[in-house]
Structures are given as C-alpha cells and as structure tokens.
Amino acid sequence: MKELQAYAREFQKEMNWDIQTVNYETTKSSLMNNYMLLTTEVAEIAEELRKAFNFTNTQINNGMNSEDAFRLAKEEIKQDVGKEMADCLAYITKMANYFEIDLEESFYAKMEEVKHRKNKDIKVIRPKVDSDLIE
Ligand SMILES: [Mg+2]
C-alpha cells in the first residue's frame, strides 16, 4: 500500500491532478471536487452491479439457472468493475496523501477497532438456504 500511495503521489503530480493548495479557498474547492469525483466513481461500481444483475436476468429468462447466469455475469463485469474500483482508489490515495495518512496503517488500525467494537448487537442474519433444511 505504501508503494501504491507513492506511485499515486507521483502520478498525480505528473498529471497535475494533485490537490491544489494555493490558499484555503483553493484547497477547500480542490478537496470538494475530488470528493465529488470519488462519489461518482463509487456510483460507477453500482452501475456495473446493475449491468451484472440485468445480464443475469436476461440469461435466466433465456433458460439458464441463476447460479450459472450470475457466474457468467460476474465474468462479464470483472474487468470494468476493477477499473471503477481503481478509479475509487486513485481518489482515496490522493486524499490520503494530502492528509499525510498512511492508508495501510489506517486500514489495519480500523479493522482492529471494528473487531473489538463494543456494539456487537448488529449482526448479519442470513436467510436459510436449501442445504440448511436437509437433515
Ligand atoms: Mg470510472
């Protein structure tokens, strides 16, 4: 991750896409602009998921079972969803670099915090699947 952040720093500088820091107003505007671009990229991941579900439904309507249809849809979107995730990472690393945040350190610290969180009443309840019903 450190390597990735260093690459992103050089890339942003080379493209002149780094956070503009002339004064407070330009910094604020640049951060907000990059935040908006990040949220746009997050929405593009949703768009890829929508494509996958539509593709799956088309295959199901053509007689394929849902598991095979979704497996095929996953392969269909894999490359493009990867690109959208990379776009998100580009904006996240740019903002992390601006704030001088070590993302790797921050990630592991946050995961430890989540693991030991006191509020454990939010648990994931999964629906029963056919295999659970077989004795
Ligand atoms: Mg994109």
What do these coordinates show?
The chain has helices at residues 2-15, 24-61, 66-98, 103-115, 130-133. With 135 residues, it is mainly α. The chain has a single domain (2-133), classed as MazG-like (Helix Hairpins, Orthogonal Bundle). The radius of gyration is 21 Å and the shape is extended. The protein starts with a helix and ends with a helix. The mean pLDDT is 93. Magnesium ion binds next to helix 2 and helix 3.
Uncertain regions: pLDDT < 50 for 5+ in a row? none
CATH superfamily: MazG-like
Q: What letter string, H or E per element, gives the SSE order?
A: HHHHH
Helix content: over 70%
> What is the CATH T-level topology?
Helix Hairpins
Structural class: mainly alpha
| Biggest pleated-sheet summary | none
DSSP helical segment count? 5
What is the beta-strand fraction? under 5%
Q: How large is the radius of gyration?
A: 21 Å
Bound molecules: magnesium ion
Q: Mean of residue pLDDT?
A: 93
Under the CATH scheme, the architecture is Orthogonal Bundle
Number of strands: 0
Oligomer: single chain
Summarize the structure.
By secondary structure, the chain is mainly alpha-helical.
How do the strands and helices of this protein lay out in sequence?
Blueprint: H1 2-15, H2 24-61, H3 66-98, H4 103-115, H5 130-133
